[in-house]
Design goal:
With 131 residues, the chain is of the alpha+beta class. The chain has 5 helices and 5 strands, in the order αββαβαββαα. It starts with a helix and ends with a helix. The structure holds tetrahydrodeoxyuridine.
């Protein structure tokens, strides 16, 4: 798995962030099980609540193109190590229980987590099948 390349792509993806209200850019890069990489950024809105985070942008792009199996996601924000919000943690969890989550400060400074690190005792699609 080429994590270094994924990290670079998440940093590059920040340049397209549309953030006229917060000025806080976030880029994300998502790797599929076949090694394909999607990128995404945060997109804000004048009425605020429709704002979409970089992580959900990139997952939406991949799923809408037919990809659903992911092995890693890199996230790079404007505040050193930027961790995904709660909503994005749940959306990442929707598609994978063992995805590698890479929090990127710079090309050479990053930390890796599992979904259970960031969303312990999570609820997911399997739970609905246990009924
Ligand atoms: N944001 C993300 O894109 N991802 C995160 O994980 C945290 C927050 C965005 C949403 C909003 O555009 C800006 O950062 C400030 O909250």
């Amino acid at each position: 798995m080429d994590i270094k390349n994924l990290i670079k792509k998440s940093i590059e993806a920040k340049k397209n962030a549309y953030v006229p209200y917060s000025g806080f850019r976030v880029g994300s890069a998502l790797m599929t099980k076949d090694g394909k990489i999607y990128t995404g950024c945060n997109i804000e809105c004048a009425s605020y609540s429709p704002t979409i985070c970089a992580e959900r942008t990139v997952i939406s792009k991949a799923v809408s193109e037919g990809d659903r199996e992911f092995v890693a996601i890199a996230i790079c924000g404007d505040s050193g190590y930027t961790y995904p919000c709660g909503v994005c943690r749940q959306v990442i969890r929707e598609f994978s229980k063992d995805i590698k989550i890479v929090i990127v400060k710079s090309e050479n400074e990053y930390k890796e987590y599992s979904i259970s690190d960031l969303l312990p005792h999570s609820f997911g699609p399997e739970d609905l099948k246990k009924k």
